[in-house]
Amino acid sequence: MLAFGTLSIVLLALLSLLALQRARHGAVAAALRSLPSRLSDRGTHTLADYDPGRELRAEQRARELLRSCVNEEEWAMYRELGFMRVWASSQEHACAYLIYPHKPILAYVPDLAQIVGEYCVEFPDQTRPYGSPRLPDSDDVLAKWIRLTADERGLIEQANMHLPGRQIRIAKARRDLARLAAWERERSAASARATPRVGSVPAL
After folding, report:
1. Which of 79, 116, 118, 155 qualifies as a cystine partner to 107, CB 3.0-4.6 A?
2. Strands of the sheet with 160-162, listed across from one edge
3. Cα–Cα distance list, 135 to 40, 46, 131, 141 (Å)
4. Contacts of 115 (CB under 8 A, 6+ apart)
5. Residue 161, beta-bridge partner list
6. Tens digits of residue pLDDT in 36-64
7. Which of 88, 81, 89 is nearest to 109 (CA)?
8. Mean pLDDT of 75-86
9. Residue 140 near residue 102, CB atoms below 8 Å
10. How far is it, in rounded angstroms, from Cα 178 to Cα 195?
11. Are 172 and 166 in contact (CB under 8 A)?
12. What is the Cα gyration radius of the chain?
């Protein structure tokens, strides 16, 4: 009787294990059968929604908006150099900032061309259901410009500050400061040439 009872228990365990394995195989087979259709549906949805010109059109609109908000010098600076300078609004910060698209805000002392640090801020695009979660380049620059000009202290206090060279190489930052200085000299010289001198008589 004891042997028969033990045999019954073992047999019941084997039957239960076999049933469990069959159930698992059935579930896996059902999932595999439905996988191609799910992949097809997802692929069709992605291809239907994807627009290869979306990023370009978004950047064009962003550049138009940026141009309408900043002054002529700032727009020319961004258009020609790829970054924008913003002067510190408070007297306690004797510095200026370089704004790059999707990079930290670079703080520096203009008189010494000394790099102070990097302020890391991020403005993700929460309105786009697909594509890149990042804002277009010009929108990112505009968001930083607005925050710096409207609430410099708040931005500086909320941003993560890092030492120079964390994300923007120091050599690149120095080259950009030199490019900015040369760009300003050229604009100043061009403005001086275009402005007629007081008392001068135009040549006939």
Report:
1. 116
2. 84-87, 96-99, 105-109, 114-120, 160-162
3. 30, 20, 10, 9
4. 106, 107, 108, 164, 170, 173, 174, 177
5. 119
6. 343 333 344 344 454 658 889 999 999 99
7. 88
8. 97
9. yes
10. 26
11. no
12. 32
Closest C-alpha among 38, 194, 168, 15 to residue 106: 168
Contact between residue 148 and residue 97 where contact means Cβ atoms under 8 Å apart:
yes
Lowest mean pLDDT among 5-14, 80-89, 173-182: 5-14
pLDDT tens across 109-159, in order? 998 889 999 999 988 776 655 555 788 999 999 999 999 999 999 999 999
Q: How far apart are CA 189 and CA 1, in angstroms?
A: 111
Measured distance CA(87)–CA(93) in Å, rounded? 9
Residue type, position 101, single letter: P
Q: How many CB atoms lie within 10 A of CB 72?
A: 8
Write the DSSP string, 150-201: H-HHHHHHHSEEE-TTSSS-HHHHHHHHHHHHHHHHHHHHHHHHHSPPTT--
Which residue type sits at 106?
L
Closest CA to 89 of 157, 147, 160: 147
β-pair type (160-162, 84-87): unpaired
The model carries a pTM of 0.68
Q: Nearest CA to 132 among 123, 143, 121?
A: 123
